UniProtKB/TrEMBL annotation:
Domain of life: Bacteria
Domain Glycosyltransferase 2-like intervals: 165-286
Organism in which the protein naturally occurs: Nocardioides agri
UniProt KW Transferase keyword: yes
Keywords: Transferase
Pfam families cross-referenced by the UniProt entry: Glyco_trans_1_2 (PF13524), Glycos_transf_2 (PF00535)
Gene Ontology molecular function terms on file: transferase activity
Keyword Transferase: yes
Protein name per Swiss-Prot or TrEMBL: Glycosyltransferase
Gene3D superfamilies: Spore Coat Polysaccharide Biosynthesis Protein SpsA, Chain A
Domain Spore protein YkvP/CgeB glycosyl transferase-like: 515-648
Amino acid sequence: MSAGDLLLRSGLLDVEFYAAQAGRTFADPAEAADHAVAVGMPERLTPNPFLDFLAMPVPVRRAWRAGRVGAVLDHLAGDDGRARRIGQLFDPRVHRPSDPAAVPLLDFLAHASDDAALPVPDDHRGPAPTRAAAREALLAAARVVATAGRSAPDGGPRVPGRTTVVIPGAQDWRAAQRAVRSVWDSTGEPTGDLAERGLEVVVVDQGSRAPAAHALASALVGMARLVRLPEAGDRAAGVAAGLEAATGDVVLLLDHQTRLRRGWLGPLRAVLADPEVAGVAPLVLGPDDTIESAGPDGLLAGHPKEDALELAGRTWRAVGEVAVAVRADSPRGAGGFRLAPTALVSHYPPDDAPSPRPVAAPVPDARPRWGVRLPSTPGIWGDDWGDTHFGESLAAALRRLGPHVVTHRAGAHDTPVALSDEVSLAIRGLTPTAPVPGAVNVLWVISHPEKVTPEEVAAYDLVFAASEVWAREATTRLGREVLPLLQATDVDERSWSEGPRLPEAVFVGGASRHRPMVELALEAGIPLAVHGHGWDHLPPGTWRSHHVPNDRLPELYGRHCLVVADHWTAMAQQGFVANRVFDAVAAGALVASDPVAGIEEHFGAAVAVCRTADDLRAAYDAARDADPGPRLAVARRVIAEDSFRARAVAFVEHVERFVPPAVG
């Protein structure tokens, strides 16, 4: 059997789609199959819209370009082909054929109806497109690419309140897909209709060819609108095409090698509400989360993001091109450009890209400079770390007491600007942080005490621990003072739920590690709502969302009758109570926790310690009918005594023994 016959009989060849890529017609399917083997596959065209050359491992790509249809089919049928995506819209791990021996893609092509949802990979955002809708979109894109044409659809009338993110010049399709995904992820829950959140995305493909053009088109189906220009290189043309297609009254022009961070939208639109402003730039951060540009290219390069807060309200004649928001109907309007320093964009330029030229920073003020060193990773990956929210809440509380306070993520603890901190406060998580020469160095151990070494403790001027048990033991063992300072909360009475609480327990956290309290809750048979990643194995209806924004957690805790919390084993044994317990109790919730040394003494009636499923069942039953008086009394005490402000006051008082109070 010839390779063409094998391709035709497999059911993989979509003749109309292949003809669109090839830019010609065929007398019959056999001619199309022979052409695909002899011409199309060597040119990296694909026989099917849901199969992607660039998703194949290198050996299969070689076979593909040699027209070896059998090798490609063997890959799709083999263990490796079943264990990885084979296209941007088809993941064999998601589609489950009724016959386990069937090849997932071929089974889908043979049996799925036109309105069947595609088995999309987990990094697709929004509802999964139907087979027919996706095919139609990819067919149209293939025709435009094959004829080197232009596809710049009119976006229609402007929609007041809508923001269009335009990504011009998207030649690196993987980077463009990540940028688009970040728009969805920045909303807090990347499902549903983006338009309902006042957003749309337009990506301008400027001259890419097969197979990148097909990969980009596939990656954007259901996530963004695709505009195509036949030639590469002219950014102005890409911007113009994106503006033409946009329907928002505000357009954010965004480099494709960026990722938007949560909370970017409101600050940008707020600045543009001023009619004297022509455009506004978000704060552009580099891969290490230090500033790349704060308005004009290179301004405050290398500084922590908080240093840009002082620039709010300043006006420039021009800003950098990585990201800038303008009014759609007057992108070159009169007025200057401003910075929205709390709207964050991470930029990941190619390794060979020139660095922005550093521009002189504003004259520093006379306030003492504190640097809070966080163990969390930079970028969007670290935004969801509990350590990030914890450290930034502490920094905000310290800032309200007078110092100039900045934060440094892991990887930026020892930059030249970071080494100018007068006070270094290291939040100790999984990894150690080196002290800053010449600064007052403060260490706060909040987790993983088993990783803290005597040498690390000895290098600091002041050492605190979020456990009375461990602080006493470490003071004796190390021969130096370790002060107890428990974790904290920024929740207050405004988050208390006034309505009836839901008759179910709630757990927030990912499944990346063992979660025995979730297992106990399932064993106890109590109604349970779980929020977090990796919970596909839970009973139907238990898992509710991938992520809950930090500012919505208190309300979530307060409207459930019970919050389930757990701890790392070493932390529980050494008396380190998790921040989640402080937040939940301050939100007026009752908490069921695994045993932690000292937790019952500190939280009293608000926390039930559970060792067995029967314990958890009893805690749930008691929580449903509990008198709110005792738990709210504990909540008021926690808000008063365990706030981040209280912790900030303690740090400032202790540091003043090393740093004299500012004069005047």
